[in-house]
Design a protein that fits this description.
Length: about 260
């Protein structure tokens, strides 16, 4: 009987201890903060990302494969707007030779003739008797000096230098074009977005827009383009009634 009492007492104490331990463990579990639930990517979201990645690769491939050889002879009339100033430009191409006439509001016409094979450039203002003849003017140097149309933007797009680029075949005013959107982040300028409508037929943009932080900064639109043109013999010759002062390109670069 004594032993029975001892065993019954021990059993009751053991049961009480077990209940106490379970209560403590339950309390500890309730006090622990809930674990963060990381949502799994849905199948549809994964498909969208895969499709976007595929579109980006196809766009870059399309841009890199764009035609770069323009017709031997070409005449382009375009209007560019920047800083609320509209500029009309007429550019004549004959092989590597080019001539650009620039008309700005309330300013006389500025003319630039570039003959790469002679590494010479003539710059003068219509109606004035003095101009500048720049020797050693290869295409790269002329672009860096801002003395002719800069193709660096187009080159950057072809080389895929942009942070984010997409492209597709499209049409602009009945002309077949490649429509390109490229975004690049600049430390000084913020996010720069370029939209371009590029004609492979003429190997030149028919339209482009440059946005900075969502604001349109520069816009160009080709209003006329002709590849069936004939030029006079003196079209790319400097006028005889202008006195040109000779300056070397390297000297101008070092001066700057």
């Amino acid at each position: 009987m004594c032993l029975s009492i001892v065993f019954v007492g021990c059993s009751e104490k053991s049961a009480e201890a077990t209940e106490t331990n379970l209560a403590v463990e339950s309390s500890i579990e309730e006090e622990q903060p809930p674990k963060a639930i990381v949502p799994e990517e849905s199948a549809s979201e994964a498909e969208i990302k895969t499709e976007e990645s595929k579109d980006a690769e196809e766009g870059i491939t399309l841009v890199k494969s764009m035609a770069t050889e323009r017709p031997e002879k070409l005449r382009i009339v375009s209007e560019m707007t920047a800083a609320n100033i509209k500029t009309k430009m007429t550019t004549y191409y004959d092989g590597d030779k080019s001539k650009t006439e620039i008309d700005m509001p309330n300013m006389p016409k500025s003319i630039l003739i570039h003959i790469p094979e002679e590494e010479v450039m003539y710059q003068y203002v219509f109606g004035e008797s003095k101009g500048v003849k720049i020797t050693g003017a290869d295409k790269t140097g002329a672009e860096e000096m801002g003395l002719m149309m800069d193709d660096s933007l187009l080159t950057a797009l072809r080389e895929g230098a942009s942070d984010d680029i997409t492209a597709k075949k499209d049409q602009l005013d009945g002309e077949d074009v490649i429509y390109i959107e490229a975004t690049e982040s600049e430390e000084d300028m913020g996010e720069v977005l370029v939209k371009m409508w590029y004609s492979e037929k003429y190997a030149t943009p028919l339209k482009y827009e440059v946005y900075m932080e969502g604001t349109l900064m520069t816009a160009l639109r080709v209003t006329e383009i002709h590849d069936n043109v004939n030029y006079n013999a003196d079209t790319f010759m400097p006028p005889s009634d202008v006195n040109f002062q000779e300056v070397n390109m390297d000297t101008m670069t070092n001066y700057e």
